[in-house]
């Protein structure tokens, strides 16, 4: 992906904000155990446990920083585009068999959301930068495939 800040959907923003809140809670709990362990003199197992908690704290701080930066960049980028497929776009595509499906273009897969296509997946990469009416080609699990961009923006009725 480019180095330009990319917008995110409101659903992705909500998921990141929930994860950030969870990380802050977890960080508080881990930090509290480190403070308590400073007052105790223990054996090597206690020292190893404290080192593990310190590593956990570093991991949590790194992820908190990553999410905070991503949310700030999304604010700079503004809302997802509605004239061209980009990260955060909702796009309806018609496949070769005539079926139309609506997807959200996201950065990372979360849970098992069948309506999310990551920007680094074959279909996601093919769709990025395209407009309504464009035909895209991509490598599907069963071989080469193509799809037509039917709409951008709000989800469209799958009967279209």
TrEMBL record:
Task: Write out the entry's keywords from A to Z.
Answer: Kinase, Transferase
The record's GO molecular-function terms, alphabetically, read: DNA binding; kinase activity; RNA polymerase binding
Can you give the residue ranges of the Transcription elongation factor GreA/GreB C-terminal domain? 81-150
Q: Identify the InterPro entries for this entry.
A: GreA/GreB_C_sf (IPR036953), Tscrpt_elong_fac_GreA/B_C (IPR001437), Tscrpt_elong_fac_GreA/B_fam (IPR023459)
Renumbered to this chain, region (Disordered) spans: 34-54, 136-160
Return the Gene3D superfamilies for the record: Transcription elongation factor, GreA/GreB, C-terminal domain
Q: Which GO terms describe its biological process?
A: DNA-templated transcription elongation; regulation of DNA-templated transcription elongation
Under the heading SUPFAM superfamilies, the entry gives: FKBP-like
Write down the PANTHER family for this protein, in alphabetical order. TRANSCRIPTION ELONGATION FACTOR GREA
Q: What is this protein called?
A: Nucleoside diphosphate kinase regulator
Q: Which organism is it from?
A: Streptomyces antibioticus
